[in-house]
Amino acid sequence: MVGAITNPYEEILKAKRSVDKLFESMNVEPDLSDVRMPILEISDEKTEILVVIELPGIKKDELSVEVSENSLTIKAERGEESEEKKKNYYYSERQYSTFFRNIPLPEEVDSDTAKAKFREGILELRIKKAAKKKNVKQVKVE
């Protein structure tokens, strides 16, 4: 019989303590300020779907949007570089972050009709709903 586990979370707690010790030994605090989920609103506007997403700090040229008949994919990648030079001293730092989100749409849409506007960190997409197919078929009687 394998040893009984008294606390099912003990291994997770051990791993967390190890990571905490690692950061403490490097005298560094992990920066989680850039980890966030943007605010998202999806509205049914009778003939179209309206999607509004807040993407603060993202520039238009860092943004990629793809629409399929039943989902929306948003990607953003940004990078920052800083450099400081002084006598007998040099410092250089690069920071990159990537955002990816695939959002299921509440109804099928016509991706060819998608229109996007991006102003002041707010992405607004309007996508016309797909025409409803009527599943009526004339059947020839033999």
Topology:
Elements: H1 10-25, E1 40-44, E2 48-54, E3 63-67, E4 71-86, E5 89-104, E6 115-119, E7 122-128
Antiparallel strand pairs: 1-2, 2-7, 3-4, 4-5, 6-7
Task: Characterise the protein shown here.
The structure is a single chain. The protein is built from one helix and seven strands; from the N terminus they run αβββββββ. By secondary structure, it is mainly beta. Helices cover 11% and strands 43% of the residues. It has a domain at 35-128: Immunoglobulin-like (Sandwich). The strands form two sheets. It has a four-stranded antiparallel beta sheet, with no helix packed on it. Strands 3-4-5 form a three-stranded antiparallel beta sheet, with no helix packed on it.
Q: How many strands, what sense, and barrel or not for the largest sheet?
A: 4 strands, antiparallel
Share of helix, binned: 10-25%
What is the name of the CATH topology of the domain at 35-128? Immunoglobulin-like
In one word, what is the shape?
Answer: elongated
- Count of DSSP E strands? 7
User: What is the succession of H and E elements?
Assistant: HEEEEEEE
The appropriate CATH architecture of the domain at 35-128 is: Sandwich
Q: Would you tell me the structural class of the helices and strands?
A: mainly beta
Q: Major sheet: order of its strands?
A: 1-2-7-6
What is the number of helices?
A: 1
Please write the CATH class name of the domain at 35-128: Mainly Beta
Mean pLDDT over the residues: 80
Distance between the termini: 71 Å
- What is the percentage of strand-forming residues? 35-45%
Stretches with pLDDT under 50, minimum 5 residues: none
| Estimated radius of gyration | 25 Å
